[in-house]
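queue> pop job 88
queue> type: inverse folding (structure -> sequence)
queue> payload:
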């Protein structure tokens, strides 16, 4: 179950003029009770638009992030770290 909550208006036309080469989200994780068991829930908030998405389980969160990365055009430029965190 994925929920989307728009929070605030943004100047999307100015942001859509050039593609972002990175993704940035505020991640929130918490445990909740579901049918007598503790399960992990998650939400992501896009700091550029304020849009929030809720995820009922970690698998939904990972699937969303993989899809977001797949949808972004690959850059021909390589980062100084070779594309790896801390590298």
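queue> result:
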């Amino acid at each position: 179950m994925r929920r989307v909550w728009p929070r605030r208006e943004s100047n999307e036309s100015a942001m859509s003029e050039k593609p972002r080469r990175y993704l940035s989200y505020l991640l929130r994780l918490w445990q909740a009770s579901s049918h007598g068991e503790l399960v992990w829930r998650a939400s992501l908030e896009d700091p550029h638009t304020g849009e929030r998405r809720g995820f009922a389980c970690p698998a939904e969160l990972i699937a969303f992030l993989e899809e977001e990365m797949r949808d972004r055009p690959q850059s021909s430029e390589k980062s100084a770290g070779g594309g790896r965190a801390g590298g």
